[in-house]
Design a protein that fits this description.
Elements: E1 8-12, H1 16-21, E2 36-40, H2 46-56, E3 61-65, E4 69-70, H3 75-89, E5 95-97, E6 99-101, E7 107-113, E8 117-120, E9 127-129, E10 131-132, E11 136-140, H4 157-167, E12 172-174, E13 179-181, H5 191-203, E14 210-211, E15 216-217, H6 222-236, H7 250-261
Parallel strand pairs: 1-2, 1-3, 5-12, 7-13
Antiparallel strand pairs: 3-11, 4-13, 5-11, 6-7, 6-10, 7-8, 9-12, 14-15
C-alpha cells in the first residue's frame, strides 16, 4: 500500500524564481504526478497562507514546505516508508517533519542547510520531538490542526502547531528523509523573528520552556539574550564573516555532497 500517491503540497512564496529553481525542480515534480500543488502568494503570514491551503486541500496528507527546499530523488519513498511505520506505531500522529528538537535540546532529522552543511544523519524509525523546523511540516487534514491566525509573519509557526498537536494528545515526529534547504544565510535575525518569539512565549507561557530548532523559549529569555549578543559580535566581525548565499542550482549541492562522500 502506497500512502503518497496523491498529496497536497502547500508553499508560501514571495519569489517565483526561487520556487522554480528549488522546490518545483525537485525530482518528484519533474514528470507527471497526481499531487495538488498550492502556491500561496500575497499572504501577510505563514499561518494565513497555510490555513488557506489546508482548507483548499483535496487530499488527506498535506505537506507545507519552504520555497527554497529541494527534495532529492527518493524523498517521497522515504516519506511513504515513515507513514507506513506510523500506521503501525502511532496512526493518530500529529505533525511530521525533516528536522526537529527534543525538550532536552537534542536534534533529530537529516537535512542540508546553507552555511551549516549536513545536519544529523539517517535513521530507521521516526523520532518523537517537541517541535519541528518550518522547512517541512506534514499533517493529516482530518487531524483538525490549524495554525495560529494571530501569529504574525513567518517564524515559529512550526513550533506553535507542534504545541497545538501536543495539547490535543498527538505526538510530533522527525523523519529520516534527507532534503536540501537552499537558503540564503543571514547573520542577524530580523525584528519579525523576535516579535514571533514573544508571541509564542505569551501564548504558551504555561508550557515553557519550549525547545525549537533555532532557540530555546523560556521565562528568563536567557537564550534570546545570548543570541542577541552573538549577533552583535558577528556584526562587528561582518567584514571577516560573510553570510553564505543561496546556490543557483541545488543539484550542485547534492553533487558536491556525493563527491565529499568519496
Amino acid at each position: 500500500m502506497t500512502l503518497t500517491n496523491e498529496i497536497t503540497i502547500v508553499v508560501a512564496t514571495n519569489d517565483r524564481d526561487i520556487l522554480e529553481r528549488n522546490l518545483l525542480a525537485s525530482s518528484c515534480f519533474r514528470s507527471a504526478h497526481g499531487h495538488q500543488i498550492l502556491v500561496q502568494e500575497g499572504f501577510s503570514s505563514a499561518a494565513e497562507a497555510y490555513n488557506d491551503g489546508l482548507q483548499r486541500s483535496t487530499n488527506e496528507l498535506v505537506v507545507f514546505v519552504h520555497q527554497d527546499v529541494f527534495l532529492p530523488e527518493g524523498w517521497m519513498c522515504r516519506l511513504d516508508r515513515t507513514l507506513q511505520q506510523l500506521e503501525k506505531t502511532d496512526p493518530a500522529w500529529g505533525v511530521l517533519g525533516c528536522w526537529g528538537a527534543k525538550e532536552n535540546g537534542e536534534y533529530r532529522g537529516h537535512v542540508y542547510s546553507s552555511g551549516w552543511g549536513v545536519l544529523g544523519e539517517g535513521f530507521e524509525s521516526p523520532e518523537p520531538v517537541q517541535t519541528l523546523d518550518e522547512i517541512v511540516l506534514i499533517v493529516r487534514k482530518s487531524a483538525g490542526l490549524r495554525f495560529d491566525q494571530h501569529l504574525p509573519h513567518f517564524h515559529f509557526y512550526g513550533t506553535d502547531i507542534c504545541m497545538r498537536a501536543a495539547k490535543m494528545g498527538m505526538k510530533s515526529y522527525a523523519m529520516s528523509a534527507f532534503c536540501i534547504h537552499n537558503t540564503s544565510q543571514i547573520l542577524r535575525l530580523p525584528k519579525d523573528f523576535y516579535r514571533c518569539y514573544f508571541h509564542i512565549r505569551g501564548v504558551w507561557k504555561d508550557d515553557l520552556p519550549i525547545q525549537t530548532t533555532c532557540i530555546r523559549i523560556s521565562r528568563s529569555n536567557a537564550h534570546l539574550y545570548r543570541r542577541k549578543l552573538e549577533e552583535f559580535c558577528l556584526s562587528r566581525l561582518r567584514r571577516k564573516c560573510s553570510p553564505v548565499p543561496r546556490s543557483t542550482d541545488p543539484m550542485r549541492i547534492l553533487e558536491e555532497l556525493e563527491v565529499a562522500k568519496g
